[in-house]
Specification:
Blueprint lengths: L1 H29 L2 H27 L14 H30 L9 E4 L3 E4 H33 L5 H4 L6 H30 L3 H28 L6 H12 L4 E13 L2 E11 H5 L2 H13 L10 H34 L3 E12 L3 H7 L10
Parallel strand pairs: 4-5
Antiparallel strand pairs: 1-2, 3-4
Helix pairs in contact: 1-2, 1-4, 1-6, 2-3, 2-6, 2-7, 3-7, 4-6, 6-7, 8-11, 10-11
């Protein structure tokens, strides 16, 4: 659902850009460490979501000569850079500013009133709380948009439980926006608490303490986002696609067993699946004589009538008809497998199924090797 991801990212960029300006203004006027870290938080979120948008843009390019499976993994790379930025700037700079504010406790007097032209004297704390209230509303709106996009994507993939889908989705962009917006709402609440307690007690240590919490929350979010995107940059398997393949093979009367089932997630919309199968001898032989006879008849029609009885030519036609009939039947089975897999798992964009051979109809061998799920399977 690239369109949903794009909408959520653009909404997050717009909202966080506005909040960055408001929070920095309130932080500079009010000398609040919590507000400054929230301003840094909004700035980093804006930059991160620009990275996410670039990832969507570059990752949506189709396959070309250099990228055989498309550019989808670039989304994970841009998202990883976003996580690095969140950790280094959001957490690192936030902790540095909190340390600076702690070192200056008692040396600065927080301004109580601010004289604004045309408005008279304004309480700085109330002004900060109003900015944070606006931030809270904006972040909730953006979070709601991201959550709606996320639930639509979950339902489109047949998952009716969005919370469970959080741990199964291959779309890192929506996950990043959802996580960052959730933390943004939590960060605003922390900032409100820190500023409020500082005003009530007159002790600036509350403001500094909650600014440290905000920075640490950003650090935890960065680690989570980094781990998610690193997982998809290391050729992670697709359990859903593999489960669908096994289920299709189990119910397919022409397949005896499979080997070397492997999948690789390219991005949230593309998975590569590779496997080897062995066909059942009795199914392959059923009707094979009729197919070979039909192929022979078609081949003979392409030969002049005067040469149709030549022994060498008839032997060649018989051999070729047997090969063509066998290949045609094999292609039918493989095409049916691919159709069922793609129908039940649309993100499987590339399927390579190799026919390893034809399993003999031997009951003792079947019992010893187990049809599906026995020692013959290599996962």
């Amino acid at each position: 659902m690239t369109s949903d991801s794009r909408t959520a990212v653009l909404a997050a960029i717009s909202g966080n850009a506005l909040l960055t300006v408001l929070k920095f203004g309130a932080a500079l006027v009010g000398h609040s460490a919590s507000m400054m870290n929230e301003a840094v938080h909004s700035l980093v979120d804006t930059l991160n979501q620009i990275f996410l948008y670039l990832g969507l843009h570059f990752g949506s390019k189709p396959p070309d000569r250099q990228y055989a499976f498309g550019h989808g993994q670039k989304k994970y790379l841009w998202n990883l850079w976003s996580a690095i930025g969140l950790f280094s700037i959001g957490c690192g700079l936030g902790l540095a500013h909190a340390w600076h504010a702690w070192a200056q406790l008692g040396q600065k007097t927080l301004p109580g009133q601010l004289l604004l032209p045309g408005l008279g004297s304004v309480d700085v704390v109330w002004m900060s709380l109003i900015v944070l209230a606006i931030a809270f509303v904006v972040e909730l709106v953006v979070l709601r948009l991201a959550w709606r996009a996320f639930t639509r994507q979950a339902q489109a993939e047949g998952n009716r439980r969005p919370i469970k889908y959080l741990f199964q989705s291959n779309d890192p962009t929506l996950l990043a926006v959802l996580l960052e917006d959730s933390i943004a709402v939590f960060g605003v609440l922390l900032a409100i608490t820190g500023i409020g307690l500082t005003r009530l007690t007159g002790n600036g240590i509350w403001d500094v303490s909650f600014s440290v919490m905000i920075a640490l929350v950003l650090g935890v979010a960065a680690v989570i986002l980094g781990a998610i995107n690193m997982r998809f940059l290391t050729d992670v398997r697709d359990p859903k696609a593999e489960a669908v393949f096994v289920d299709v093979v189990l119910s397919h009367r022409e397949i005896e067993r499979f080997h070397d089932l492997r999948t690789m997630v390219i991005d949230d919309q593309h998975t590569v699946l590779v496997a080897e199968v062995e066909l059942r001898e009795e199914v392959m032989l059923a009707g094979l004589h009729q197919r070979i006879a039909a192929q022979e008849e078609n081949l003979l029609l392409q030969v002049p009538e005067a040469r149709q009885e030549e022994p060498t030519l008839r032997e060649y036609i018989a051999d070729r008809a047997a090969v063509q009939a066998t290949l045609a039947r094999t292609e039918e089975i493989i095409d049916d497998l691919e159709r069922q897999i793609r129908q039940r798992c649309p993100q499987v964009s590339h399927v390579t199924i190799e026919v390893q051979g034809i399993a003999a109809d031997d009951s003792s061998m079947t019992q010893s090797t187990n049809v599906i799920g026995g020692p013959a399977i290599e996962m």
